[in-house]
Amino acid sequence: MEKIEDKNQQQEEEQVVNPWEVSAKEGGKIDYDKLIDKFGCQRLDQSFVDRVQRLTSRPPHVFLRRGVFFAHRDFNDILDAYERGEKFYLYTGRGPSSEALHLGHLIPFMFTKYLQDAFKVPLVIQLTDDEKCMWKNLSVEESQRLARENAKDIIACGFDISKTFIFSDFDYVGGAFYKNMVKVAKCVTYNKVVGIFGFTGEDHIGKVSFPPVQAVPSFPSSFPHLFSGKDNLRCLIPCAIDQDPYFRMTRDVAPRIGYHKPALIESLFFPALQGETGKMSASDPNSAIYVTDSAKDIKLKVNKHAFTGGQESIEKHRQYGANLEVDIPIKYLNFFLEDDAELEHIKKEYGAGRMLTGEVKKRLTEVLTELVERHRRARAAVTDVMVDAFMAVRPLPNMFD
Amino acid sequence: MEKIEDKNQQQEEEQVVNPWEVSAKEGGKIDYDKLIDKFGCQRLDQSFVDRVQRLTSRPPHVFLRRGVFFAHRDFNDILDAYERGEKFYLYTGRGPSSEALHLGHLIPFMFTKYLQDAFKVPLVIQLTDDEKCMWKNLSVEESQRLARENAKDIIACGFDISKTFIFSDFDYVGGAFYKNMVKVAKCVTYNKVVGIFGFTGEDHIGKVSFPPVQAVPSFPSSFPHLFSGKDNLRCLIPCAIDQDPYFRMTRDVAPRIGYHKPALIESLFFPALQGETGKMSASDPNSAIYVTDSAKDIKLKVNKHAFTGGQESIEKHRQYGANLEVDIPIKYLNFFLEDDAELEHIKKEYGAGRMLTGEVKKRLTEVLTELVERHRRARAAVTDVMVDAFMAVRPLPNMFD
């Protein structure tokens, strides 16, 4: 009995963050400081924000200056190299498990788009349709269909086609990419992946085989049509921090097979409407705002489901003000309301009780509706021909211009 | 202590046969009946030999009529289908771990060449350079070089280029082939591959990932340029019985992903010169006759290293005769001396002590020298252009003619 209690206690105390599960300890929220310690990455402090601003001669993205991207690995090496006049390339991706993306899914792409524009560098985007086929038990065909649908949402984020290669694993695995997969797999024991990813003996071997697939886009030689003769090109990976385990493994292997370790810049999770205990979930439609939601949907979801820090009566609210620490509308505005002055004003007034929850929710609804409408218009303009063009295996002769 | 003794005793008693190790129990030889029981395959009896002769209207290959290919799985289904007028395709392969092949390596190819000619069917030959890169710790480049060198030896066996596609995994994995790998991997747990192949936690994940690579050439959809629209085409795999574990796994998975189970026809191991306790080893040059050995090498190896059942003195030999059961020259002649009458004569005379070991060795040297010389001449005529032609990803419009 004692042993079982110990185990339950430990489970309650521990947050779980891996590529398939993000959950805070009971009733709490994700402790990002602990995560940084546990994963062994670095905090991205203000000096980085200032340096990026100086190097790119443009204002840092709101996600950078407000700490949405809050952790990194060797981002300083990327900036050092860039300052010496060396270029790098960006690598990000998505597991296409659902037709409609939610706002949390857009965050790495919005940020990657900024990085591409600011640093003027090429970008590879991996759609892990093989992963979703294996983890979600989708058919090959359905995984590929979702990959193409998701590609349209990604393209709608505004990537530069002359600098961007999007690929699906089912289409692209082979050749130099497969050779690198084998090189990586040779360097990682089964015990090691169990330690990193928590696989069990009853998991199928597709799961055990997958980590090298997500690892090798970190190596320029996986893309001979893009980076032939550029084996020393550095790679920077913007992603949510739950993907860190893949790249810890990749960074461990890289020098043993003659490549640079990829650098990482990692984001917080975008919280669920119901509160910040994890990231948004595609399986609970009321936990998230989708890019397919109508203005009416958004209004309803924000009004009905957003967890707030407002007080239970107007009188108490006027007296004590809102608890901004737990307030989801404030957190969402922190991601998407670009005007720093307006955000500060709202936080001050709402925190002091002079602004009511309904007013904040109304402003959030406007901001999200505008964002979603803008995305929808952009996505509607993405044709199948454009998807084919982004996904064509081709050289990108102007990718460093 | 008792437990340890038990384990030692068990190890002594058990023969080990898997794709990477073949060893009889201490001092004994491989017990093929036990192997058939353990693996769950069927013995290939005389009725099959007769049936093949009748269906193909040609004498059965010496390897068939002398029981070198001695076991099968569902070979009857292949013959039933063939009798109904349905075609099938052949799949065999090689792990290119060494530059020079020995005679044991040639056996499946010699037999497959006979099957291709007799049944007039297409053939795919897999060179698992990825496997050897992972198991033997060769570089990608060296594995690929060995694959091409081995392809020359394989082509020298006389395959029909209009019916034969040779591929290396490093070149060919991708597309439909990769999709089938993922489908297979989804159906096999880690515990399952541990049970089949004996992997441990300290083995690298490349090993765990490999079985689907060897599985999927069993499915026609892995070769869209050959078998598009022929998903129901049956597959027959001629191989040595140590490869059975791969195809037990494949057969288990096949119906779950909508394919026929591949049929198998499986051979004995070709014994080492030193005696029949295992198969020839590429790592001990004196255990095997290589296709690169000179007539002088062959004579020396046969005379010096071949284990015989002759008696220790001529007097005793004349009196007791040779023990044919353990005699390697007789075993080798059983594989390669095609004249049944001459073989019977030698066995009778040698067994009765009227023929001496030296005489049998001399005849074996002649037979092997002729075989090796013929192979060497054929291989010398194989150009790089021919290798490219056999390995070109192409349709084979006349493959069923």
TrEMBL record, chains A, B:
<dbReference type="GO" id="GO:0009791">
    <property type="term" value="P:post-embryonic development"/>
</dbReference>
<dbReference type="GO" id="GO:0005737">
    <property type="term" value="C:cytoplasm"/>
</dbReference>
<keyword id="KW-0067">ATP-binding</keyword>
<keyword id="KW-0030">Aminoacyl-tRNA synthetase</keyword>
<keyword id="KW-0436">Ligase</keyword>
<dbReference type="InterPro" id="IPR001412">
    <property type="entry name" value="aa-tRNA-synth_I_CS"/>
</dbReference>
<keyword id="KW-0547">Nucleotide-binding</keyword>
<dbReference type="InterPro" id="IPR002306">
    <property type="entry name" value="Trp-tRNA-ligase"/>
</dbReference>
<dbReference type="GO" id="GO:0005524">
    <property type="term" value="F:ATP binding"/>
</dbReference>
<dbReference type="InterPro" id="IPR014729">
    <property type="entry name" value="Rossmann-like_a/b/a_fold"/>
</dbReference>
<keyword id="KW-0648">Protein biosynthesis</keyword>
<dbReference type="GO" id="GO:0006436">
    <property type="term" value="P:tryptophanyl-tRNA aminoacylation"/>
</dbReference>
<keyword id="KW-0963">Cytoplasm</keyword>
<dbReference type="Pfam" id="PF00579">
    <property type="entry name" value="tRNA-synt_1b"/>
</dbReference>
<dbReference type="InterPro" id="IPR002305">
    <property type="entry name" value="aa-tRNA-synth_Ic"/>
</dbReference>
<dbReference type="GO" id="GO:0048608">
    <property type="term" value="P:reproductive structure development"/>
</dbReference>
<dbReference type="GO" id="GO:0004830">
    <property type="term" value="F:tryptophan-tRNA ligase activity"/>
</dbReference>
<protein>
    <recommendedName>
        <fullName>Tryptophan--tRNA ligase, cytoplasmic</fullName>
        <ecNumber>6.1.1.2</ecNumber>
    </recommendedName>
</protein>
<comment type="similarity">
    <text>Belongs to the class-I aminoacyl-tRNA synthetase family.</text>
</comment>
